[in-house]
Design a protein that fits this description.
homodimer, Rossmann fold, Arc Repressor Mutant, subunit A, five-stranded parallel sheet, 5 strands, about 55% helix, DNA-binding, NreC/VraR/RcsB-like_REC (chains A, B), DNA binding (chains A, B), Response regulator transcription factor (chains A, B)
DNA sequence: AGAAACTGTAGTAAAAAAACTACAAGATCA
DNA sequence: TGATCTTGTAGTTTTTTTACTACAGTTTCT
């Protein structure tokens, strides 16, 4: 009698997933949430065995929700789904505590396998991701976040970290404000951070400024 | 043959000051600037003995200009004028390197006296300010900037320093965004800082977060 | 007691930033 | 050698932030 909670903003996806799961576990209890808030509430109100959560719900909230869940219920396994291929974001998601990453190539069997795996408290790692993990580990990527930045991104990063406004930076580099803004987004994305203050903290810690 | 540079955005004030100065120094060379940029340019182009600068030129630029001047020409004495009474901001101005603070009660004689004083490389301090200085010193105010904040301001300060957005804070305290924004302005003003990154740095240094 | 300053609060309007989107050229991986 | 990623760049639209301003209680000097 599994209790599985699905979070995705597309009703179609939820429906598909539900059918797929019921096929395997006919008597399972399936919950649905269409946004991060509902997801959190359902987790508070009820116990679940596994959560399957799309990362790109409205408002970038997949990762946010994940960290919130990890605080509230550290043991509840959360499988993160994504429409993106198994790129570097998979690592970030795992770092944030996900029990597994289901990329866009994921097929039926993978999902069932993933559920079995994470229920045992283990992580579901596809071979592709395993390799990335190994590489990341070797490069100690997690400790040198900023090395993943391109030159331009790094410039922008340093200036943001020291408190410069996007417009100031644009001015100084003679770029459009939106360009600098895009760099900022990428920097935050790549470094898995969400505010300039995080950048400042990081830079201070690493003595980059 | 004194060379005095006046910076104020009101033509009337510049004119009045010019006449007043010429009365005392008939052969003085008087320069005028109506905004911070012009002020900086005139300082680059020409040597001056004293600068008299209003603190509230368009865009909060009085203090900014002062620190820029202090970097370019550390020895050039800058007298800061202000329409505000000699309150706590006088201290901030002095801390930023001004040679003296001329408040709204300043009279003719004070200005002349101030010029004489600062030309000798000394600071022009009125008794009122001297007292404030002493008190500030005693309280080591300069090292405990955050103690000047009110409770609400301090709350907001901490949250800003840890990277919360104004809107998040407003939400959490159930206040209007503009209210929180006002607190932010006051915090920045009181602490003599200009960006959230400064707050973060300060808070980290003092281990407040 | 009275003036001046400080605090908590918010509206309006203007400015800035963020999210999204797009695209071409170069890098890379399979 | 294609397919996929990354990088540099920017426009549009939506959301946030900021600058000003205001105002009524409190507190604080004189």
């Amino acid at each position: 009698m599994k209790r599985i909670l699905i979070a995705d903003d597309h009703a179609i996806v939820r429906r598909g997933l539900r059918l797929l799961l019921l096929e395997e576990y006919p008597s399972a209890e399936i919950g649905e949430a269409s946004d991060a808030e509902t997801l959190i509430n359902k987790i508070i109100q009820h116990e679940w065995d596994v959560v399957i959560c799309d990362i790109s719900m409205p408002g970038r909230s997949g990762l946010d929700a994940l960290s919130q869940i990890k605080q509230m219920a550290p043991k509840l396994p959360v499988l993160i789904m994504s429409m993106y291929p198994e790129d570097q974001y998979a690592l970030r998601v795992l770092k944030a505590g996900a029990a597994g990453y289901l990329g866009k190539e994921t097929i039926h069997d993978d999902i069932i396998k993933a559920i079995h795996t994470v229920e045992l408290g283990k992580k579901f790692i596809t071979p592709t991701i395993a390799e990335k993990l190994a590489k990341a580990f070797e490069e100690d990527q997690s400790d040198q976040l900023h090395e993943k930045l391109s030159d331009r991104e790094f410039d922008v990063f340093k200036m943001l970290a020291s408190g410069k406004a996007v417009s100031e930076i644009a001015n100084q580099f003679a770029l459009s404000v939106t360009t600098v803004s895009t760099y900022r987004s990428r920097v935050l994305e790549k470094m898995g951070m969400k505010s300039n203050a995080d950048l400042t903290r990081y830079a201070l810690e690493k003595k980059l400024i």
